[in-house]
Amino acid sequence: MLGKWYQGKFIRIEEVNPTVRRYWVEIPELEQIHFKPGQFMTFDLPIHEKRHRRLRSYSIASYPDGSNVLEFVIVLLEGGAGSTYLFNEVELGSELTLRGPLGVFTLPETLDPSKEICFICTGTGVAPFRSMLQDIRNRAIPYPPMRLIFGTRYEEGILYREEMEQLTKELTDFNYHITLSRAENWDGEKGYVHPLYERLYANNKEVIFYLCGWNVMLDEAKQRLLKMGFDKKQIRYESYG
Fold first, then answer.
1. For residues 63 and 26, is the Cβ–Cβ distance under 8 A?
2. What is the CATH number of the domain that holds 34?
């Protein structure tokens, strides 16, 4: 099932930094849109004559709140036809066709209390994890120890930082780590995400990893985790191409 096509209307756009924006899309024909945190929507963008060349998928960054509005956080890719269109052509009131929700990169209905959950992401890959964590908080879902490792280049690229810091106060046993690969005046963790999770999980093998980001990061993370002794079944991922 590929989901139904809807007409979506952009009702809010917020610039996070020069290359990242948050978009809120309303689906007027629905009173409420049902989705599972971690799923995505596919947009049909007017960027090519052939439909399959027009399709772009984006994780839902919002969490189920009973409304018909979805939030997406999108990075402008150099040479990327889809993100270039969204950044240059879409404005408040613009309408686009989208399909979904789609995808199986979701948490199980019941979380295993004996297995820690580690979310690892870079950049806008935080979107599905923001949705999952806020849903756990909102619905008071029983959860095991959880950790989010977020990597980006510079401090201005940290997404949903205040929300995540607040969640560490509201969710017992949730830890949040930021590591910056190119920042100079930064007192926190520096470098890529890989050395951080390798250090944190050197002696803990009761973990389920959820990875989201670009293929290069995912491929390296999978190789490193397997080398550390984790089973393939403990590694779940969503690729951004």
1. no
2. 2.40.30.10
For the beta carbon of residue 200, count every other beta carbon within 10 angstroms. 16
Residue 173's SS3 state is coil
* Residue 108 domain flag: no
- Same domain as 221, residue 131: yes
Q: Which of 134, 85, 70, 89 is nearest to 107 (CA)?
A: 134
Which helix (H) or strand (E) is 85 found in, with range? helix 81-88
User: Read out DSSP for 13-31?
Assistant: EEEEETTEEEEEEE-TT-S
pLDDT digits (tens, 9 = 90+) for 126-135: 999 999 999 9
| CB atoms near residue 220 (< 10 Å) | 13
pTM for this model (two decimals): 0.95
pLDDT digits (tens, 9 = 90+) for 182-232: 998 899 999 999 999 999 999 989 999 999 999 999 999 999 999 999 999
- N residues, the chain: 241
